[in-house]
């Protein structure tokens, strides 16, 4: 992948959102990563046969939710984009077998000669909707993330590129229309919503196409909360986002898929983003560990201008900003989502492109 948004959509699903408010870039020295050689990471497959698995949400009962972007329409001709109803939400109880608690969600993909290698866009993250029942889902669309692409797929695609509720189908924020209308970074119109956190009755979502974080109060309207600046000439590509109990946000950006281009931003309540650490590579998700520090998941250790190499995991000590690389060898293959359950166990969605994805638990 290069530093353009066009190439980003080839690796992970795409869709949209935005409105304008530029965040100043704070100075920060590149992260000086140390490798923790005292632990050997073990990997246990908790669930397999997942179809383009994306984000992980840890629940208070010890279970995990995994968003499946699906496989588009099975049998779709190679080179043709099709819409299917193969998106899903998977629940994995601690120590139990996976079950799809929601099925039939929209999923779009371009058909491939090898159906098992299809790269679909659809549900990318899901959380329990305790107020209304069902789930709140962020769904990507695929590039170029425009209203025209979505319309071409038919009315059944209306929730792609949005944050919506499964209980009643209500769209809480249409990120595709937002990007097409406002285009906050002034580039090509191509949205790619990736992760979100709940914010009161609404949400804050990262958009890896618009390079911003978008706020939605939950009534269908949206506004740009932060516009993350480029890292030199590389697009910021916001990905993971988490929020502490005091309201402090942490936001990861991929830095255009360049080696050393990723940053993690800190946003105290009422303030603008400032760079917490830089010098990381291809960070696609972040999560708090059992100590309250940050874990950061790398999709690939090499530039995405070429084929992705093995991913990796890093820990950021929030008291010192020190970065420690946790040795995972070549065990992480195109990882996408990161989660930590209530017991402190760390999980990753692995082999996340195709229909043979896994949810794995790391031991270190």
Automatic annotation (TrEMBL):
Keywords tagged on the record: Signal
Signal sequence residues: 1-33
Name of the protein in its database record: ScyD/ScyE family protein
InterPro entries noted in UniProt: 6-blade_b-propeller_TolB-like, ScyD/ScyE-like
């Amino acid at each position: 992948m290069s530093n353009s948004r066009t190439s980003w959509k080839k690796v992970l699903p795409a869709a949209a959102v935005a409105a304008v408010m530029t965040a100043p870039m704070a100075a920060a020295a590149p992260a000086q990563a140390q490798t923790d050689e005292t632990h050997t990471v073990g990997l246990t497959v908790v669930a397999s046969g997942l179809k383009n698995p994306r984000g992980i949400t840890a629940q208070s009962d010890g279970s995990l939710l995994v968003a499946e972007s699906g496989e588009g329409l099975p049998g779709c001709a190679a080179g043709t984009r099709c819409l299917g109803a193969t998106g899903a939400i998977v629940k994995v109880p601690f120590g139990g077998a996976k079950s799809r608690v929601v099925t039939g969600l929209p999923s779009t993909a371009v058909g491939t000669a090898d159906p098992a290698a299809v790269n679909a866009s659809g549900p990318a993250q899901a959380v329990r909707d305790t107020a209304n029942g069902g789930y709140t889902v962020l769904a990507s669309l695929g590039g170029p993330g425009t209203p025209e692409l979505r319309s071409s797929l038919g009315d059944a695609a209306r929730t792609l590129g949005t944050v919506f509720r499964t209980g009643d189908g209500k769209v809480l924020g249409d990120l595709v229309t937002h990007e097409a209308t406002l285009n906050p970074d002034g580039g090509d119109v191509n949205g790619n919503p990736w992760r979100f956190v709940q914010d009161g009755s609404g949400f804050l979502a990262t958009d890896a196409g618009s390079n911003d974080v978008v706020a939605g109060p939950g009534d269908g309207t949206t506004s740009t909360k932060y516009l993350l600046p480029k890292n030199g000439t590389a697009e910021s590509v916001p990905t993971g986002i988490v929020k502490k109990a005091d309201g402090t946000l942490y936001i990861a950006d991929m830095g255009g898929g360049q080696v050393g281009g990723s940053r993690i931003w800190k946003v105290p309540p009422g303030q603008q983003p400032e760079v917490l650490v830089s010098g990381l590579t291809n960070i696609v998700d972040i999560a708090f560990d059992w100590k309250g520090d940050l874990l950061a998941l790398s999709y690939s250790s090499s530039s995405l201008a070429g084929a992705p190499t093995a991913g990796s995991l890093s820990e950021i000590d929030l008291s010192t900003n020190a970065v420690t690389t946790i040795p995972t060898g070549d065990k992480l293959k195109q990882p996408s989502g990161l989660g930590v359950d209530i017991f402190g166990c760390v999980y990753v969605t692995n082999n996340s492109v195709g229909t043979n994805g896994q949810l794995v638990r790391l031991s270190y």
